[in-house]
TrEMBL record:
PANTHER family named in the record: CHROMOSOMAL REPLICATION INITIATOR PROTEIN DNAA (PTHR30050), DNAA REGULATORY INACTIVATOR HDA (PTHR30050:SF5)
Protein name as it appears in the record: DnaA regulatory inactivator Hda
Pfam families: Bac_DnaA (PF00308), Hda_lid (PF22688)
Domain of life of the source: Bacteria
Domain Chromosomal replication initiator protein DnaA ATPAse: 91-155
Organism (species): Methylomonas koyamae
Domain Hda lid stretches: 162-226
GO biological process assignments: DNA replication initiation; negative regulation of DNA-templated DNA replication initiation
């Protein structure tokens, strides 16, 4: 048996730092995954930037905290590891696989994932899968693998409305330790991209700037930050 690679926990990507909005059911299902009556397989899909990776990381950290043995693997096209990385993962109590569509056209990976899936499920372990489309639209040539991706509970991440985006910004800011006044929130949504990963990166930049300047966040101060003056 090959010892699986270690993965790095993203300590800031927890359930506490995630704004659920209309996705409370998904959070609840992921949190209850470790319970004896929890789902054996969850498939989560949503648009790019909707928070799938955050949820999978949070699921792993929650599982680790309650004594499970989790593993997270992001299937990044630019640095996709050899499929042998799956060897030994069928012994892990929880495996989270992120960005499944990357495996399109990779017959070696699809066959390896199919074999892993059967062993892992037979062992009674838990599996969380993430993609930007429902299971039936996965670009897999191995149809039996595509079918198995849809065997468990499938849930879609709902996009946030503008009012929920402001609430999400406030939630994340409070987690980082600062406040976003209503005027600043409205300015951001009116003049900045409605892209969650970009907004989270901006919040980190705002956090550093407010700490360095020892100033509260205002619209003029935000303009300075956006202009790169700080």
């Amino acid at each position: 048996m090959q010892v699986p690679l270690q993965f790095e926990f993203q300590s800031h990507q927890t359930f506490a730092s995630y704004y659920a909005g209309q996705n409370a059911e998904i959070v609840g299902q992921l949190q209850s995954l470790a319970a004896p009556n929890g789902e054996q397989q969850l498939y989560i899909w949503g648009d790019t930037g909707s928070g799938k990776s955050h949820l999978l990381q949070a699921c792993c950290q929650h599982a680790k905290a309650i004594g499970m043995d989790p593993f997270y693997l992001c299937l990044t096209a630019a640095r996709l590891p050899p499929p042998a990385v799956l060897e030994g993962l069928d012994d892990m109590a929880l495996v989270c696989l992120d960005d499944l569509p990357v495996l399109a056209g990779r017959a070696d990976w699809q066959q390896a994932l199919f074999n892993f899936y059967n062993r892992h499920r037979q062992n009674g372990h838990k599996l969380v899968l993430a993609a930007d489309c429902p299971p039936k639209f996965l670009p897999f040539e191995l149809l039996d693998l595509k079918t198995r991706m849809g065997w468990g509970l499938t849930l879609k991440i709902q996009s946030l409305r503008d009012d929920q985006l402001i609430a999400a910004l406030n939630h994340k800011a409070h987690f980082l330790g600062f406040d976003i006044p209503a005027s600043v929130g409205r300015f951001l949504l009116s003049h900045y991209v409605h892209d969650l990963p970009a907004l989270w990166l901006l919040l980190d930049k705002i956090d550093r700037a407010t700490l360095a300047a020892k100033r509260k966040l205002t619209v003029p101060f935000l303009k300075q930050i956006l202009a790169g003056e700080l």
